[in-house]
């Protein structure tokens, strides 16, 4: 087909691939403008202690408001990386989020922060220094920050990544494996990696109570985490029966639309202030369970 079209010229792109490349280039320049025009925002999704309802931390999630419409991160993070923009953008997210959470902590709310990082962000020059600088400049203690990375960041050509993440961990920063169970991290790796937290992928949680295998796998991951001394967070909790089963499994932490959606900083504040803990401190999200 390529030959017919090009008369001997080699046609490397199928038409749909070409359209995709053009779209990505356009997205790249849109992104440049978006950063200049401050179209990005950070939202925060509460993570709770499933036994007590207390909000133990928030996960920072990047939002792009393009012409009043929110573009999903999955659509723009790839292009942002390819255009080199993800490094300044990621640095901006980290600083915004650290600044907000440091402010909450000064208001005597004992809350942690998780921020997502891609392999390319971790591989960027001066990555360790830039995280340390964000902490120093915002006053967030390293112990309050968790870096979330997907499994492949740690196991695929991971030499330098692991070194860099270990350097931050030596400062007190915690490390979480995001989307655990979907990637390459074999169980054998777990004991060797500098990891503190595993976040069970929503695809397991989705099957809780309805799919026997997924329920068994979730139970196994929760137990494995506990036995290895790791904190386990179940992600994507949407239905009460999932929450109920996770509690019954003694899964320590959870996150999902049923518990709380990602929201602007101001909304997190009002949520935890209207729901004080038994000790009268801010920081509880009442779980929709008896
Ligand atoms: P993630 O780190 O696994 O984040 C969790 C995603 O699940 C978020 O999607 C969140 O809105 C969504 N979520 C939370 N609870 C539920 C639920 O109960 N049901 C369903 N269906 N979804 C739920 P979001 O915000 O669209 O982000 C998607 C991914 O984009 C993130 O997955 C993360 O990998 C990436 N991302 C987001 N913000 C950043 C960022 O600042 N930097 C980097 N490097 N990646 C980011
Ligand atoms: Mg995450
Ligand atoms: Mg995740
Ligand atoms: Mg994910």
UniProtKB/TrEMBL annotation:
Domain of life: Bacteria
Protein name, UniProt field: EAL domain-containing protein
Residue ranges of domain EAL in the record: 24-276
Lineage of the organism: Bacteria, Bacillati, Actinomycetota, Actinomycetes, Streptosporangiales
